[in-house]
């Protein structure tokens, strides 16, 4: 009965497929899907887009997280807009169902992270010509399942992990699985009753079982795969025949398990010229290795150096035979010496490279080597003798070429002294389109005869000045240049010269650790390069120490930034970077952001500079947290920028200003401390900013607000300054709940500042006056606590100023029950509120307090000691 049901289901699927293949289609269109409010899209779910699409349409999915189970019944292309599976994620809405179920031909799925199904991430049902590429599938029961006569499909360049089965092929043929990475699954690739498929260029590692071929899975081709470190076995064959298995790299405790009585599979091809998987010059069989370092067959030579061992291999000691087993190329050390002393294999570095294989080491003896070196062998190490970097000198034979030009992955260059004239656009070391290289412990000095200054000095005459970059090209080349290269490490190099010392251009996820760069226009320049980490570098005596240009997601940690002429660290048009735990001193401007937003600057110390931190020209929504600015001209300066948040920063002993906002709006200053300056905190022509819980002290001006409006200053402490809070030509600001005390002249000064609100402040022990008002009418001043020898001084016209609000039942600043005017006290005890009675016990003095004819507190708060006294 079960067999009948299965046949009926197969007939239904075939009929459905034929129907869909013959259906008419409209002109192809592009349909957009997104589920964020700020995205302009056609649909908010992928299934809705599929349902509305016509055959041949393209569905583009914007970044986001989508919880869906999607049935695809039309030949459409479904792709992520970014092409990056890390930001476009599809999770199973119903974990018991497939995430994608494909019921028709010629479907394409590209660029997604697909996870969370107890069935399959992508499930094919009897389809032809589909493509699944560049996806990440994880935590599904089956990553990709080709089922029931699914043929001529392509599964390419996917990452599959943490599934019961990575890729399953059942009753299907003529499919191509290539360039996939499959790991941490119970079974990496499983074929059942599936002939004539091609499995090539995949990495299948860290699974319990790598590949299984069972049932009528005959005539498949397995080539160029890395099948390594699988827990129980590499490949399991059960009663299959005619499979061609060659040029694979096997390295498992058990490489092959066969349940066949007589193996009819083919384990090698005819010896053919071509680079094999071990890097040898001929194709034949497979590499047979084990995690304990043994290569099989053991003890067999490759006398003719063709990369094929001279004896056949009975695989795992069974009847299975690889007649042309490949030699695993063991790394060797080649030596180079062009002077007296130790005999060496070669006299030039290039000759050694030309004779090296992947994984070899080239040991370079002390001497002077005049060469331009091309490095094209993967996993090659070029190193000086230990401790000999100063004496192992490499100079360019031609200044019109790179000294070292690296186009192979995994190269290490260590301990060399590269000192040479190198003309732009060449470099001492250039990495071009490579990964996993290590450049470490080198001394690199590049120079030329013509010196062109590339950066003008900073004009610091005004807080509104700006940095001018005169990007005129220099004749000098680069010290280290990374072009379109990722995941490389530059560690502990000393680089000096005239132009740009280290340049990252369109390069991602590299690590630059503990390098020292000095004496240049740009120490480190990160150009259009994202997600790199710069840690522990010394940036000194350059025009600009580190310059990030149009670059995002980079991390600069633990840098030492000294004596740079223009700036220590400069960000231009760069978003989402982190600068932390660095020390910058004696730079013109230590840390500068221009047109750079949403960056995090935390726990840095900047000192003895014109500007400690300078954010300007629409550098918006940055966060400065826990930084310290010491002994600068201006500690933290924000100019023409909005939405920045400053928390827990300290600005001490600034010559001009500790923290300043110029022409800036909607920023927040929270829990900062500024002291010992001309101005601790200065707002100029800035509006809608919030200053909360800041402490300003021991300055000429605690907070100076000039030509600024609609700012909120609350819960701040301003003490031991000359002026506590100074408002000049500023309107509609609110000062609430501040503690303003012991200032040597005035607590609060309001000059030509109208329509401000002062409430709930404690203005105490200020030497001359608590509140000084000059031509500042229409202000509202209520529920403040005044206790100064002279509480107020009013000059000019202050018409419209109210010293009380409407009497309301609400707690006042003395914890009384009614809120009305202010509490007027003096240290001598003879203040108005201290000497006038409150007979009815409402906490309000029985008579008004006339400050002058324009300003009367009609509801002055009463000292509790005068309440109910007659």
Question: What does the secondary structure layout of this molecule look like, with pairings?
Answer:
Blueprint: H1 2-22, E1 30-33, H2 46-52, E2 58-61, E3 64-67, E4 70-72, E5 77-80, E6 88-91, E7 100-102, E8 108-110, E9 113-115, E10 120-125, E11 131-133, E12 136-138, E13 142-147, E14 154-156, E15 159-161, E16 165-170, E17 176-178, E18 181-183, E19 187-192, E20 198-200, E21 203-205, E22 209-214, E23 221-223, E24 226-228, E25 233-238, E26 241-246, E27 249-251, E28 256-258, E29 264-266, E30 272-273, E31 282-283, E32 287-289, E33 295-296, E34 313-314, E35 321-322, E36 333-336, H3 349-354, E37 361-364, E38 367-370, E39 373-375, E40 381-384, E41 392-395, E42 404-406, E43 412-414, E44 417-421, E45 427-432, E46 438-440, E47 443-447, E48 478-483, E49 489-491, E50 494-497, E51 500-505, E52 511-513, E53 516-518, E54 522-527, E55 533-535, E56 538-540, E57 544-549, E58 555-557, E59 560-562, E60 567-572, E61 578-580, E62 583-585, E63 589-594, E64 600-602, E65 605-607, E66 611-616, E67 623-625, E68 628-630, E69 634-639, E70 645-647, E71 650-652, E72 657-662, E73 668-670, E74 673-675, E75 679-684, E76 690-692, E77 695-697, ...
Parallel strand pairs: 1-2, 2-5, 3-6, 4-7, 5-8, 6-9, 7-10, 8-11, 9-12, 10-13, 11-14, 12-15, 13-16, 14-17, 15-18, 16-19, 17-20, 18-21, 19-22, 20-23, 21-24, 22-25, 23-26, 24-27, 25-28, 26-29, 27-32, 36-37, 37-40, 38-41, 39-42, 40-43, 41-44, 42-45, 43-46, 44-47, 45-48, 46-49, 47-50, 48-51, ...
Antiparallel strand pairs: 30-31, 32-33, 34-35, 91-92, 94-95
């Amino acid at each position: 009965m079960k067999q009948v049901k299965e046949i009926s289901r197969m007939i239904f699927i075939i009929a459905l497929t034929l129907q869909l293949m013959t259906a008419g289609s409209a002109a192809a269109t592009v349909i957009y899907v997104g589920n964020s409010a700020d995205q302009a899209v056609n649909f908010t779910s992928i299934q809705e887009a599929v349902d509305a699409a016509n055959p041949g349409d393209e569905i583009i999915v914007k970044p986001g997280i989508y919880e869906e189970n999607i049935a695809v019944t039309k030949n459409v292309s479904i792709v992520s807009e970014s092409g990056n599976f890390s930001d476009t994620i599809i999770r199973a809405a119903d974990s018991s169902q497939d995430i994608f179920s494909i019921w028709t031909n010629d479907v394409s799925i590209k660029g997604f992270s697909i996870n969370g199904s107890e069935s399959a991430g992508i499930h094919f049902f009897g389809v032809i010509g589909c493509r699944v590429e560049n996806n990440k599938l994880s935590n599904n029961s089956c990553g990709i399942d080709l089922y029931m006569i699914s043929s001529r499909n392509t599964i390419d360049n996917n990452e599959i992990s943490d599934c019961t089965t990575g890729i399953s092929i059942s009753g299907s043929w003529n499919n191509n699985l290539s360039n996939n990475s499959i790991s941490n699954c119970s079974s990496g690739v499983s074929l059942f009753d599936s002939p004539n498929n091609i499995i090539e260029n995949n990495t299948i590692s860290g699974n319990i079982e790598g590949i299984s071929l069972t049932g009528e899975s005959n005539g498949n081709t397995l080539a160029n795969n890395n099948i390594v470190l699988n827990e129980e076995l590499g490949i399991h064959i059960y009663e299959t025949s005619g499979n061609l298995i060659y040029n694979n790299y096997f390295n498992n405790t058990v490489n092959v398990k066969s349940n066949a009585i007589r193996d009819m599979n083919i384990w090698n091809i005819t010896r053919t010229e071509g680079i094999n998987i071990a890097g040898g010059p001929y194709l034949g069989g497979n590499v047979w290795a084990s995690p304990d370092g043994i290569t099989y067959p053991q003890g067999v030579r490759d006398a003719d150096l063709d990369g094929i061992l001279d004896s056949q291999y009975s695989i795992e000691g069974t009847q299975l035979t690889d007649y042309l087993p490949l030699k695993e190329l063991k790394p060797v050390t080649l030596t180079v010496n062009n002077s007296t002393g130790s005999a060496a294999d070669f006299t030039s570095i290039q000759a050694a490279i030309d004779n090296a294989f992947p994984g070899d080491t080239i040991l370079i003896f002390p001497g002077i080597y005049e060469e331009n070196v091309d490095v094209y062998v993967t996993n090659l190490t070029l190193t000086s003798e230990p401790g000999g970097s100063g004496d192992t000198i490499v100079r360019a034979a031609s200044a019109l070429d790179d000294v070292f030009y690296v186009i192979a992955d995994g190269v290490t260059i260590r301990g060399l002294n590269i000192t040479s004239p190198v003309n732009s656009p060449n470099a001492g070391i250039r990495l071009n389109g490579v990964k996993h290289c290590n450049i470490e412990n080198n001394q690199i000095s590049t120079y030329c005869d013509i010196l062109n200054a590339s950066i003008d000095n900073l004009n610091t005459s005004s807080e509104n000045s700006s940095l001018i970059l005169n990007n005129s090209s220099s004749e000098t080349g680069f010290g280290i240049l990374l072009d379109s290269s990722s995941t490389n490490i530059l560690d502990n190099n000393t680089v000096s010269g005239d132009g740009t010392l280290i340049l990252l251009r369109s390069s991602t996820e590299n690590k630059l650790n503990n390098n020292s760069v000095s004496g240049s226009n740009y120490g480190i320049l990160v150009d259009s390069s994202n997600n790199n980490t710069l840690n522990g570098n010394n940036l000194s005596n350059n025009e600009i120490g580190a310059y990030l240009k149009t670059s995002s997601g980079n991390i600069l940690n633990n840098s030492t930034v000294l004596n740079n002429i223009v700036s220590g660290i400069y960000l231009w048009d760069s978003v989402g970077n982190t600068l932390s735990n660095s020390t910058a001193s004696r730079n013109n401007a230590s840390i500068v952001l221009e047109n750079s937003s949403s960056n995090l600057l935390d726990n840095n110390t900047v000192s003895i500079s014109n500007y400690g931190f300078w954010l300007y020209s629409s550098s918006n929504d940055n966060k400065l947290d826990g930084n310290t600015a010491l002994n600068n001209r201006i500690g933290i300066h924000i100019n023409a920028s909005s939405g920045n948040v400053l928390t827990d920063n300290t600005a001490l002993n600034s010559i001009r200003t500790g923290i300043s906002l110029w022409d800036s709006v909607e920023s927040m200053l929270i829990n900062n401390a500024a002291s010992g300056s001309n101005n601790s905190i200065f707002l100029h022509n800035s509006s809608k900013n919030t200053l909360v819980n800041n402490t300003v002290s021991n300055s000429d001006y605690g907070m100076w607000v000039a030509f600024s409006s609609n700012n909120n200053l609350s819960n701040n402490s301003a003490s031991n300054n000359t002026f506590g809070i100074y408002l000049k030509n500023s309107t509609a600001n609110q000062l609430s709940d501040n503690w303003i005390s012991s200032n040597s002249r005035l607590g609060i000064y309001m000059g030509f500042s109208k329509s401000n609100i002062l409430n709930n402040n404690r203005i105490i022990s200020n030497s001359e006056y608590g509140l000084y008002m000059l031509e500042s009418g229409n202000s509202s001043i209520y529920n403040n606590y005044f206790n100064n020898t002279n509480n107020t001084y009013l000059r000019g016209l202050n018409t419209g100023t109210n010293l009380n609000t409407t009497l309301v039942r609400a707690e006042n600043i003395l914890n009384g029950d009614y809120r009305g005017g202010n509490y007027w006290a003096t240290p001598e005890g003879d203040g108005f509120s201290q000497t006038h009675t409150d007979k009815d016990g409402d906490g309000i003095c029985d008579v008004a307090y006339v400050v002058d004819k324009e300003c009367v507190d009609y509801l002055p708060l009463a000292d509790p000691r005068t309440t109910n006294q007659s």
